[in-house]
Specification:
By secondary structure, this protein is an alpha/beta fold. It contains 6 helices and 7 strands, in the order ααβαβαββαβαββ. The protein has one domain: Vaccinia Virus protein VP39 (Rossmann fold, 3-Layer(aba) Sandwich). The protein has helices at 5-20, 33-44, 64-71, 84-94, 133-143, 169-176, and strands at residues 53-57, 76-81, 100-104, 115-120, 145-154, 183-187, 193-199. The longest helix is centred in the N-terminal third of the chain and has 16 residues, at 5-20.
Length: 201
């Protein structure tokens, strides 16, 4: 399987969907739901999201929405997902929610809406043929937010020749500091994982 680029990511998730079912956590690539929630909790500490808009870049089943709504009831949630089978599950679950907008497409597309916050949970961890992909993605997503960007990445625990890749936190932080003077990092909430916040001011 070619693991590089969008096509490889789509094939990867379609394989998981066939194996585990479209509505399962495993279809998203999360072996344990506890890891997903730990990452959500870390991302939610970016700021007071109540009354603000959030773009969930690579939203999957939009599981981040109920997590955020419980803590920030007035949040406006935009979920973007390129894999139709995953987005269909999200649509079925949240189609009656007035403050949810679900979009199909590439979250790096410039047509994506400008929101107060942009959050990316796991969607930047895929290996790519372009070594600068993660940096270009961070810069693009940062340009789409008014207040701050939050994202998590792996720092280890990745087997060779797999779809996922790990990054050195210091290298990511150094790049983010070229975009903003206010950058924060969180570690220790889940093994081999770190979360970065990049603020507009």
């Amino acid at each position: 399987m070619n693991l590089f680029g969008t096509a490889g990511v789509v094939r990867y998730h379609k394989t998981l969907i066939e194996r585990y079912g479209a509505g399962t956590t495993r279809a998203l690539g999360w072996p344990k739901i506890e890891g997903q929630w730990a990452r959500f909790k870390a991302l939610s500490q970016i700021g007071d999201l109540d009354g603000h808009s959030v773009l969930d870049a690579g939203c999957g089943h939009a599981d981040l929405y109920p997590f955020l709504k419980k803590r920030s009831p007035s949040v406006t949630y935009y979920g973007c997902e390129q894999i139709p089978e995953l987005l269909q599950v999200a649509t079925q679950r949240y189609k009656r929610e007035n403050n949810v907008v679900l979009l199909q497409g590439d979250f790096l597309d410039t047509a994506m809406p400008m929101t107060d916050y942009v959050l990316a949970s796991g969607s930047l961890t895929y290996r790519h043929s372009d070594d600068n992909f993660v940096y270009n993605a961070i810069e693009t997503l940062f340009a789409r937010c008014r207040i701050a960007l939050g994202f998590n990445l792996l720092s280890g625990g990745v087997e060779p020749n797999t779809l996922l890749t790990a990054y050195h936190p210091d290298e990511i932080l150094n790049f983010c500091r070229t975009l903003s003077k206010r950058v924060q990092i969180q570690v220790g909430y889940w093994p081999d994982d770190f979360t970065v916040f990049v603020y507009k001011d």
